[in-house]
Amino acid sequence: MFAEITYWLFNALYIYAVAMTIIVLMLENRNPIKSIAWIIAIIAIPVVGLVLYALFGRDFRKGKTVEKANKAYAEALKNLDETFDQGIPVEGYENMSQLIYNLCNEKIYNNTYIKPFTDGTSLYESIFADIESAKETIFAEYYIIENDKISKRFIETLIKKAKEGVKIKIVVDAVGSWKVTKKTKQDLAEAGIEYHEFLPVTLPFFGKKINYRNHRKLLIIDNEIGYIGGMNVADRYIEGKPSLGKWRDTHIKVVGDGIQGLAKVFRKDYHFVSRQLVPIDIKKMPNTDGLTLCGMQTVFSGPDMEYRAIMQTYLRIIMQSQKYVYIESPYFMPNEAVRSALVTAAKSGVEIKIIIPLVCDDRIVLRSTYSYVKDLASAGVHFYFYKAGFIHSKLIVSDDKIVSVGSANMDFRSLEHNFETNVIIYGDETASIFHNIIEHDIADSEAFDMERWKSRPFSMRIKESIARLFSPVF
């Protein structure tokens, strides 16, 4: 009798929890597609669906944590007296620069020089050389710092510089960098390095924070040299992985006025985790040998902002294009707005080329990515499957005029949940450099073939459709 009562009581409580969760979902008035995906998950996967929603589904975009942090940051900036040398909009892209300014309060920095990196080996050779030359400050912000060879070298080098008197501040994502050991954190603290985890997840409240991750990859040295892109601190960017092969990514080195945009993003995040305000004291122009002059504008987004700035910037690039848009994204799960923009541009005669992985570090995500291919290809979008390893690059080039590079993938998580940072680069010469990079990647790719795609096993198409159904959840 007791067991029977317990059984019915549990079922009644569970049905009540499901019903209340669905009501909350509806009252949030979020994207209907995403709400439906969550409702299906909650109903179709008993208990597990409810737990997943508690962990990943709740919307804390306007929660107290974010609200308090934004108010505190705005208050801290009131007493700051800073003037930045900002440039003028690039001809033909006045609306683009105005959009980013209105969304992020960031103007263009014309006196900027950049150098792209497409592999981890050359990138980290440059990073370690610049760290070794640091004299005053090093600010590092990464989604992932692993516990492997390159990570240990990175940490050891920072500790060495701290002992030389360089002030070092590190922000890592608490989930992405969970492999950083207590011993490493202790060593950093003993060296005087300030180390902070972004939105740490601890029971019983981890469900509030686990869904919003800091996916940014920033490094700022002496407020003179900056790095931004898709590469974290991990061996995979140098050695690849046996199951995936070479890890192909895009990162850039920045010097000049554009450093100010990167520094302001780091300052805001550092204030979020420490309530300390980092001054931005831009120094003289360092050596620009081997770098290319351009205009640069920093665009960032996250649950602390009212608008999804990076998604809106992507839309603007696609819709403003006259000749072509080339895109690289490892996790290609575009929302309805981005899909519509791609179709509209393709139907308008704009050449759209998208490079996605042939192999991926997440099988379910890859299947979801593949579910978007056929419909977009039918509309005139050209797809290429990168076969020289795993392509992790987040890169857009348009019309030999404009480039977007940074941490944001073209998927629901990057565009709607994560803290992300990209830079928009203006200029013919720089666009030509990145255009050539993508052309080289296309040469290492297999072009989409509609007839072969249609002949895929039915079971594969079913798996892709199921994965797509839950793509807003990923």
Q: How is this structure best described in words?
A:
There is one protein chain. The protein is of the alpha/beta class. It has three domains: 2-57; 114-290, Endonuclease Chain A (Endonuclease, Chain A, 2-Layer Sandwich); 309-469, 2-Layer Sandwich (Endonuclease, Chain A), CATH 3.30.870.10. It is 44% helix and 20% strand. The protein contains 18 helices and 17 strands. A hairpin with a 3-residue loop joins strand 5 (217-221) and strand 6 (225-229). The longest helix has 26 residues, at 2-27. The model has no long low-confidence stretch (mean pLDDT 87).
Q: What are the segments in which pLDDT stays under 50 over at least 5 consecutive residues?
A: none
Helix content, binned percent? 40-55%
Biggest β-sheet: count, sense, barrel?
15 strands, mixed
Structural class computed from helices and strand pairing:
alpha/beta
Topology:
Blueprint: H1 2-27, H2 32-44, H3 48-57, H4 64-78, H5 94-104, E1 109-117, H6 120-132, E2 137-142, H7 149-163, E3 167-173, H8 182-190, E4 194-198, E5 217-221, E6 225-229, H9 236-239, E7 247-248, E8 251-256, H10 259-274, E9 292-301, H11 309-320, E10 324-328, H12 336-347, E11 351-357, H13 363-371, H14 373-378, E12 382-386, E13 390-391, E14 395-398, E15 402-406, H15 412-417, E16 420-426, H16 428-443, E17 445-447, H17 450-454, H18 458-469
Parallel strand pairs: 2-3, 3-4, 7-13, 10-11, 11-12
Antiparallel strand pairs: 1-8, 1-9, 2-5, 5-6, 6-8, 9-16, 10-14, 12-17, 14-15, 15-16
